[in-house]
Structures
1.
Amino acid sequence: MENDPIAKQLFLRLKLYKLEQYPAECSVLLHEIMSDSELKSGYIVINKKDCCWHTWVEKGGQVFDLGLEIAASKDPEFGSCEIERFETPPEGVEVSEDPELVKRFSGSRREFWKSSPKKFQDFRSKTLSKHRSSS
């Protein structure tokens, strides 16, 4: 993340505006402002035992995971965890997921943003406006 100024700036602004509790929205917004990126969803396994549904962005073979960056900024030990990503739920671990969030994420982007918290919608509008004027 440190190597990409767009991701780094968005990460810092999310913390400034206290929007870290919306990791799916963070990933979708990063994808919208990062050209030629791919928005991904799947599952992450942490330290070979905890598994949850997760979103991240990939570009040029590099993974940009704002959710993990935010978690590591709140708990430095989290940064040293072993992380594995899977497209489908892995066997042998209990999966934690929010079915409503997965449904929102898997639907249309327009409906996803309409159902997002107003505070994040406003932040997204400002961020997209700023990004377009600087491009």
2.
Amino acid sequence: MQKGVASAETGIKIDTFDTTISDEKALAYDEHGGVCGFAHKFAPSITIQITGELSSTTEGLPVSVFGTALTINNKNNAKLTDGSDEGDSVGDAYAGIDGTGGFYLEDITFSESRDGFRSISLSAISYPGVT
């Protein structure tokens, strides 16, 4: 069992690191309007949310740029499945969703307070295969 975040990130002292895997479904309906099936894996995504204190304002995550793939050291922490994404390596997917896409900045927030350290919160999203 692991305690804490597995790896350090450049420019931030991590407080929390969250990964969300989404696989939107399209429902199929029968002639009575009831759900009789669904389709999925046509628009999956993986979102990472990172919060923590700034340790640099000149490198790493605090200087992320929209439209440029981010370097996230902990991005593989949630890869726990065993190749059900058609891959053949243990831990190569997120809940069966291919993990080959790059992570791109969605939003970033900088916070300051009278009695605390300057902090950052950012989220990045990956669409499988988009690099």
